[in-house]
Every structure is written in C-alpha cells, then in structure tokens.
Structure prediction request, 274 residues.
Amino acid sequence: MSVLVAEARKIPAFMRRDLLVLLSYRAAFAGDLFYIGVQAVMFGFVAELIDESKLPSYGGVQASYFDFVMIGVIITTVCTVLLQRVAMAVRQEQMIGTLEALLVTPTSATTVQVGSVAFDLVFVPIRMAVLLFAVAVTLGLGYELSGVLPSLVLLAGLVPFVWGLGLMSAAAIVTFRRGTGPLGVIMSVLGLASGAFFPLALLPGWIQTLAEANPVAIAMEGTREALIGGAGWGAIGSDLIVLVVLSGAALFAGVMAFRVALAREHRRGTLGLY
Prediction:
C-alpha cells in the first residue's frame, strides 16, 4: 500500500509540468480552440442545407443536423487529441533526452504512463465541455440537461479505449522511433465508421456492421440518445457494458505492448536513442 501511495504522489508532479508547458504556449492553445470553433460555425451553415427527415430520431425526438454533428465533432476531437497526446508524450521525452533518465528513477512504468497523460485526461474533456456549452449559448443546441451525466459516463468509458490505442502507438515509437501513422489511420477509420458526421444508415452496409463493435460509435450513439432523446440510464446501460469491456481489452493490450517495448529496448541498450 505504501508503494502505491508513493507512486500516486508523483502524478501531480507530471500534471504540474504539463500545465506549465500549456501556459507557456498560450497562442497554440487559443489557436486550437479557434479552429474547433470555426468547425462548429461551418457545420452550423451546413445544417441549413441538410434535409432533417434523413436524420435519425432519438427517443422520438427528430435530431437537427447541428445537434447531431456537434456530438460527433466533440467526441472525435477528444479521441484524436488524447490519442496524439498519449503517443507523443513518449516521443517528446525521447526528443529532449529525458525518457531514459525518467525510467531509471524509482518510478514504475505504469506511473510514467499515467502521469504522462493525467493532465490531458482531465483537461481535454473539460475543454470540450466548455466549448460545447459556449456553442450552445451562442448558436443554440437542443440538448437535454438530463442526458449530460450519462454522456459524461459514456465518454469516461471510451477514454481507456483511446488510451490503449495511444499506448500501442507509444510502444511503436519506443521501438521504431516512429509509429503514429498506422494508428492515426485506424482512428480515422473508427471515426468514419462511428457516424460522426453522417448517419450510419447512409453509409455502406459493411461500415454499419463494423459500427456494432466500434467503441467510438457505441459511445457516440449512446451520447446522442442521452443528449438529444433524453434517454436515461436504462437506455444506455447495455452500451456502457459493451464499451467498458472493449475499452478494458484495448487498455490491457496497450499496457502490455508498451511494457514489452520498454523491456526490449532495455535489453538492447537503445532506450535513449531517438
């Protein structure tokens, strides 16, 4: 127990470091938010061209395209940012020459993994929630407040899946010094097959089949049921169970891949190379 407490106490140090880095690049942060805001405005205009009769209904409520697509924008953005941050946290340590020094300290690999993304796990969803609230106030969104908490739980269930993919990418980076490309393609496919920007019914049959086992699609449709249709816990319970199982499997695979990659580089004595 004392070991776990000692390791947990190191996490705030990682978070403080990442906060200071963020504050030192304020222009980049503002530019990122501005880009997402421009996306929201663009989709607001696109919504005027969409025949809403072709959109699905949730809980008997006909979705508007703007309500429909903003959920897709937020969830895919959160997934993409977290995936990049998990993978690039390791690459950044490599490039500045601190990865090997960090791993030879009395800090477990698990603590390094958690600490490297702890700040983003907290900050990125909050940032997206604030942006969504700002869009709702300025441009108007017809979401049900009762669906906010179920939606946050679904998003929390999706995060370990993205984290697992990020750790697999980090394992590839440790081994090959590159590795974000293939997983970026995978994330793009998962995003396409999630119905983020178009209803799944308009997509080819094989994509609809893939969506049934796609954690991003499961979280996205469950969120739409909650926010647009006002669905309660009972309606999203089965989705949440499937999501947790798939996320747990992805996280386990990612942790094991990262540990195997670290062990291999330790044996070869090439951990400090970049």
Q: What stands out?
A: The first strand starts at residue 57 and ends at 58. The radius of gyration is 20 Å. The chain is about 75% helix and 0% strand. The chain has a mean pLDDT of 77.
